[in-house]
């Protein structure tokens, strides 16, 4: 729910969250029609903006209209069917149009429309759709659907071949395991939803406070939000407080929110019901950085109308850190910003599964062709349709039903290995169906705050022009500050007399003299302690009857009980640093602030004006009056690019900013300008006039402020380091060497994101950075893309607003250019934009993407990626719970991809192809057998032989391939370049598949023909010889495939061989025991096995000797 804050009290800490999983589309108004004829041309020479550009698009539209029968037959029917289905789905799932609303205080019954219920529902199924939904997810793939059709065919007597359990047992096993897994997940989701919906809140009514469930909160209710309470709506409120928005935009810093002024004048909270007031709010939308509305009170003459902005609102999924919120609910349920920016969770399918699905289709086609050939050779005599289907069932082992079972069990084994890896403790595999995706990634999209950085600032450097202080010389600054204020306090008390006539001092400034180092340090530290938006917060201890007493009596104002809060962590660290050197910020409100000197003296300052930081100005300023002297000073700090033209001439600023940037420090230039009383009064008059302007208010205000920003005195340059997560730099270098392109998507400011990209070495020192200029129209986007096109091998930095414009008009061109960059940084991104970027990369590149983050604002991105990784961090576990894989530190992603991703993909590819080989070899033997015996549709092996062949005789050695590895973990991490080969998909391709087909045809033909040639009087000897040779061949082929032996592999080989030999004594139905114990049987089986396997061993030896793979060269 979303809240408008109306009244507030002081509390400790409160948590607001909304874990919905819905998504709402929105449309953006198009640019003027005169730009519609301006396509962006892609060519070798760059973008050309000439007359030919304007003639291309209309001609393309004419060509599109020429659609005839050829277009329909070549795929147009798919487009038409898809359009019809989309229209039908839109009609069936028509959503209510989102509109602006009028919300009366405490009167939900006055609402003109019915708004969505404030209930959470993250379940994918209900009691009626569970079974059909799970079955659909399983049988929408050709592999499982094929198994189902073959198994159902065995209920027809004329088509029955073998026993029913040989077909239904593996299929039933897969379905049962899948349903149990989905049922467990559904029960967990239901319990979490029920817990959230049952959370109790205090609702303010005419009769007093009442308890209400979260799901029963309505638009218009007055809600009192106490500490540590989860809330799922949006409020408009009435008192100043601090909030955290880490679950919404990824920023963990506290942001100041102000209340509706009108309601603050009410004597008591209960008087909210005695006034007639309403809130007019804009329609729900995705933008989390803006809000427009009005607060109107009707029972006064004249009416009181107060404009509302984002500063007056409290979004869902935010954290209130101080103050009790009493607000009116304006948005609930799926109309809140957090829900609109959250996408539905989708069932992810690995690329390997899709490749195997295509191969099974090819095998099925070969199976049908082989069956038709068999029937054709018979001459299509008799009931040839029945014979055709019997041959299809007879050759159904070409696509073994155990393929799905082995792959699923293998994936579970990979997940278990990942979670048991001691080198990446705390890793959790939440989606066990896609571990091999970790070995196929091309793009890694990462969050910044909490993922690459700890969001903990450390003051590193203070430069005064002629002298620089680092972390090891901060004690010198402290000594200078102590001495400076000690001299002030030791002066005679006549200093206070001068304070009674402040104007005299400002009217007669003395001549300019070179200041000492001590005085320069004093001025710099004082400026840093004053120029900021930081507020000290003291925790309240004594609360009586649920109401907070007087702050003076209840709060502890000691240093230990004080914390600093601001919208920027840089400012907090700067104020903490001034405290460490002796100048402490102890109190601040909207109009004043107080500093404490090392000697304990209190310095009071009156805040006259404050100019907040914006992305356009890249600086912030404050005008203060010192109460003891009456001096007026204008302090300003900002980025060097913005401050260089404002400060007086100097010869060191640009050089030192470059030096600090190369060290990965975030720099701020601090300047000062002393103002006389007359100068300030003139400025204030002009400033107030500009703020009252109706037209071009922003430009006029900016012009007035810039009139002060001239020839300011440069005081110092500060350098602050944002602490990176452990081993971020080597991990990013490892990923780059592995061929993975890294994009950083963050909701933070452009300057901060650029600095972190440099300090983390996401952008190397030798690479240029192209900062995409802010754009708002198609023409601007066209020109900026032209400029970007001419750059080569440079990283791209772009804001969310500019990105939206580019994607609206030049989606394909922008993605094509961005994909050529070594690194991309997208700042000021909303959660929806993050997911949109992931989707664009998937659509335009067809490569596998991975998203990693740690906050609730990263959930959409994680769910949209092919592989989502969540980090359990300071921003909670929301991203971790929604991800496919959960890790505890960013550095663990290196081993997760290089080692476990590689092994999972290589092992799954080998396992899948070997299982198919196991089916193809026996199908080849069946084809040879049928062709020799007059093309009869009679099975070669029946009953337990087929069950044993797919299970105990060969299953354990084949499944032991999940323990195989081609490269040791240390080697994979030392040479990340090996990862590049995995992205090409060479371990499982049509080439490797055809090789296995040829091997299967060769071995199956040799085994069957040799057994037919060597068998003696009785036919049962053919079965004994061929089946024994088949088992031995499969065991030897497993040994041939293995690259690194494990003791369990040896045990599996001998265990399977022992099971087969032991079962011979009980298989009198299939084997002649008197024959299989003779020497002729042994030498015939040995000879056939040798002929089928020896050539393959020789080929493998020669290939490794003359054309070894890259990893074998490294190993040697």
Automatic annotation (TrEMBL):
Compartment(s): Golgi apparatus, trans-Golgi network membrane; Membrane
GO cellular component: endosome; plasma membrane; trans-Golgi network
Catalyzed chemical reaction(s): ATP + H2O + phospholipidSide 1 = ADP + phosphate + phospholipidSide 2
Active site, renumbered: 447
Biased composition (Polar residues): 488-509
Transmembrane segments: 165-184, 362-382, 388-407, 915-937, 943-963, 993-1013, 1019-1040, 1047-1067, 1079-1099
Source organism, top-level taxon: Eukaryota
Start and end residues of each P-type ATPase C-terminal domain: 881-1108
Gene Ontology MF term list: ATP binding; ATP hydrolysis activity; ATPase-coupled intramembrane lipid transporter activity; magnesium ion binding
Gene Ontology biological process terms from the UniProt entry: endocytosis; phospholipid translocation; retrograde vesicle-mediated transport, Golgi to endoplasmic reticulum
Keywords, ordered alphabetically: ATP-binding, Golgi apparatus, Lipid transport, Magnesium, Membrane, Metal-binding, Nucleotide-binding, Translocase, Transmembrane, Transmembrane helix, Transport
Binding of Mg(2+), residues: 447, 449, 854, 858
Signal peptide: none
Residue ranges of the region described as Disordered: 488-517
Keyword Transmembrane: yes
InterPro entries in UniProt: ATPase_P-typ_cyto_dom_N (IPR023299), ATPase_P-typ_P_site (IPR018303), ATPase_P-typ_TM_dom_sf (IPR023298), ATPase_P-typ_transduc_dom_A_sf (IPR008250), HAD-like_sf (IPR036412), HAD_sf (IPR023214), P-type_ATPase_IV (IPR006539), P-type_ATPase_N (IPR032631)
Binding positions (ATP): 447-449, 571, 613, 637, 666, 746-748, 828, 834, 857-858
EC top class, as a word: translocase
Similarity section: Belongs to the cation transport ATPase (P-type) (TC 3.A.3) family. Type IV subfamily.
UniProt protein name: Phospholipid-transporting ATPase
Organism, as annotated: Cyclopterus lumpus (Lumpsucker)
Lineage: Eukaryota, Metazoa, Chordata, Craniata, Vertebrata
Gene: atp9b
């Amino acid at each position: 729910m979303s809240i408008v804050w109306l009244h507030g009290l002081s509390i400790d800490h409160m948590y607001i969250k909304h874990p919905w999983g819905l998504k709402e589309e929105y449309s953006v108004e198009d640019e003027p029609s005169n730009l519609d004829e301006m396509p962006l041309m892609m060519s070798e020479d760059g973008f050309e903006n000439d007359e030919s550009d304007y003639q291309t698009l209309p001609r393309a539209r004419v060509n599109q209209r020429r659609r005839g029968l050829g277009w329909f037959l070549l795929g147009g029917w798919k487009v038409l069917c898809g359009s019809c289905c989309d229209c039908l789905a839109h009609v069936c799932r028509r959503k209510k149009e989102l509109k602006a609303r009028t919300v009366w205080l405490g009167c939900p019954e006055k609402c003109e429309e019915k708004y969505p219920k404030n209930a959470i529902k993250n379940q994918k199924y209900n009691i009626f759709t569970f079974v059909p939904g799970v079955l659909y997810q399983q049988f929408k793939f050709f592999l499982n659907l094929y198994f189902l059709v073959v198994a159902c065919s065995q209920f027809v007597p004329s088509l029955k071949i073998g026993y029913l359990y040989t077909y239904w047992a593996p299929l039933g096993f897969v379905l049962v395991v899948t349903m149990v897994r989905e049922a467990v997940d559904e029960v967990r989701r239901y319990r979490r939803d029920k817990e959230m919906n049952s959370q109790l809140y205090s609702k303010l009514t005419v009769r007093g406070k009442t308890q209400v469930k979260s799901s029963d909160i309505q638009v218009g209710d007055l809600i009192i939000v106490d500490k540590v309470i989860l809330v799922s709506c949006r409020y408009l409120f009435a008192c100043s407080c601090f909030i955290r928005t880490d679950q919404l935009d990824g920023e963990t810093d506290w942001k100041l929110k102000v209340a509706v002024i009108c309601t603050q004048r009410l004597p008591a909270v209960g008087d909210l019901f005695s006034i007639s007031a309403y809130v007019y709010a804009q329609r729900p939308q995705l933008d989390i950085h803006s809000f427009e509305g009005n607060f109107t009170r009707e029972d006064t003459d004249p009416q009181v109308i107060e404009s509302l902005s984002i500063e007056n609102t409290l979004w869902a999924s935010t954290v209130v850190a101080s103050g009790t919120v009493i607000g009116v609910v304006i948005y609930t349920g799926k109309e809140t910003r957090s829900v609109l920016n959250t996408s539905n969770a989708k069932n992810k399918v690995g690329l390997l599964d899709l490749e195997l699905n295509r191969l099974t289709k090819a095998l099925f086609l070969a199976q049908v062709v082989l069956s038709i050939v068999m029937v054709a050779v018979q001459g299509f005599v008799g009931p040839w349709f029945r014979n055709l289907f019997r041959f299809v069932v007879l050759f159904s082992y070409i696509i073994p039903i155990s393929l799905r079972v082995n792959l699923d069990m293998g994936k579970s084994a990979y997940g278990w290995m990942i979670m048991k890896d001691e080198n990446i403790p705390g890793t959790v595999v939440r989606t066990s169906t896609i571990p091999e995706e970790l070995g196929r990634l091309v793009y890694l999209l990462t969050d910044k705050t909490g993922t690459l950085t700890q969001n903990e600032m450390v003051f590193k450097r203070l430069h005064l022009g002629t002298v620089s202080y680092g972390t090891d010389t901060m004690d010198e600054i402290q000594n200078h500050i102590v001495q400076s204020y000690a001299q002030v306090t030791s002066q005679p008390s006549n200093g206070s007399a001068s304070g009674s006539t402040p104007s005299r001092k400002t009217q007669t400034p003395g001549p300019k003299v070179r200041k000492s180092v001590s005085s320069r340090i004093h001025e710099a530290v004082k400026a840093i302690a004053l120029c900021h938006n930081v507020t000290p917060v003291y925790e309240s201890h004594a609360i009586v009857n649920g109401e907070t007493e007087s702050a003076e009596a209840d709060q502890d104002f000691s240093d230990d009980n004080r914390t600093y809060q601001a919208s920027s962590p840089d400012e907090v660290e700067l104020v903490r640093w001034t405290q460490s050197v002796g100048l402490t910020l102890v109190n601040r409100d909207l109009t004043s602030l107080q500093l404490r000197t090392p000697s304990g003296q209190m310095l009071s300052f009156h805040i006259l004006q404050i100019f907040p930081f914006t992305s356009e100005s890249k600086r912030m300023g404050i005008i203060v009056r010192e109460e003891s002297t009456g001096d007026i000073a204008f302090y300003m700090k900002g980025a060097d690019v913005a401050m260089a033209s404002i400060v007086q001439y100097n010869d060191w600023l640009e050089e030192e900013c470059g030096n600090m940037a190369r060290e990965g420090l975030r720099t701020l230039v601090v300047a000062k300008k002393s103002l006389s009383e007359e100068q300030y009064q003139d400025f204030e008059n002009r400033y107030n006039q500009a703020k009252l302007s109706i037209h071009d208010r922003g430009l006029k205000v900016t012009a007035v402020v810039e009139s002060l920003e001239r020839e300011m005195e440069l005081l110092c340059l500060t350098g602050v380091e944002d602490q990176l997560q452990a081993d971020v730099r080597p991990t990013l270098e490892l990923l780059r060497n592995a061929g993975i392109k890294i994009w950083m998507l963050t909701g933070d400011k452009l300057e901060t994101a650029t600095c972190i990209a440099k300090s983390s070495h996401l952008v190397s020192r030798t690479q240029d950075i192209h900062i995409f200029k802010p754009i708002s129209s198609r023409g601007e986007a066209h020109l900026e893309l032209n400029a970007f096109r001419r750059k080569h091998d440079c990283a791209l930095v772009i804001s969310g607003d500019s990105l939206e414009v580019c994607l609206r008009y030049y989606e394909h061109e922008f993605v094509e250019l961005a994909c050529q960059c070594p690194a991309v940084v997208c700042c000021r991104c909303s959660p929806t934009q993050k997911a949109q970027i992931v989707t664009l990369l998937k659509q335009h590149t067809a490569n596998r993407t991975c998203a990693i983050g740690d906050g609730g604002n990263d959930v959409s991105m994680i769910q949209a990626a092919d592989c989502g990784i969540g980090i359990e961090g300071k921003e909670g576990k929301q991203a971790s719970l929604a991800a496919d894989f959960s890790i505890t530190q960013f550095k663990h992603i290196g081993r997760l991809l290089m080692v476990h991703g590689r092994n999972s993909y290589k092992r799954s590819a080998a396992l899948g192809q070997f299982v198919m080989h196991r089916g193809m070899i026996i199908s080849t033997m069946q084809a040879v057998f049928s062709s020799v015996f007059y093309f009869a549709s009679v099975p070669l092996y029946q009953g337990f032989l087929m069950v044993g062949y797919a299970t105990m005789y060969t299953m354990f050695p084949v499944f032991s391939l999940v323990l195989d590895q081609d490269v040791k973990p240390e080697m994979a991490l030392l040479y990340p370049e090996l990862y590049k080969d995995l992205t090409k998909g060479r371990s499982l391709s049509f080439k490797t598949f055809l090789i296995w087909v040829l091997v299967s045809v060769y071995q199956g033909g040799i085994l069957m023909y040799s057994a037919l040639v060597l068998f003696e009087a009785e036919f049962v000897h053919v079965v004994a010889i061929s089946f024994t040779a088949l088992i031995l061949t499969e065991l030897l082929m497993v040994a041939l495939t293995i690259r690194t032996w494990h003791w369990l592999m040896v045990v599996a080989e001998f265990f399977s061989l022992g099971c087969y030999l032991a079962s011979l004594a009980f298989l009198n139905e299939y084997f002649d025991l008197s024959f299989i114990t003779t020497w002729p049987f042994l030498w015939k089986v040995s000879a056939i096995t040798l002929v089928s396997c020896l050539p393959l061993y020789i080929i493998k030896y020669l290939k490794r000797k003359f054309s070894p793979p890259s990893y074998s060269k490294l190993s040697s």
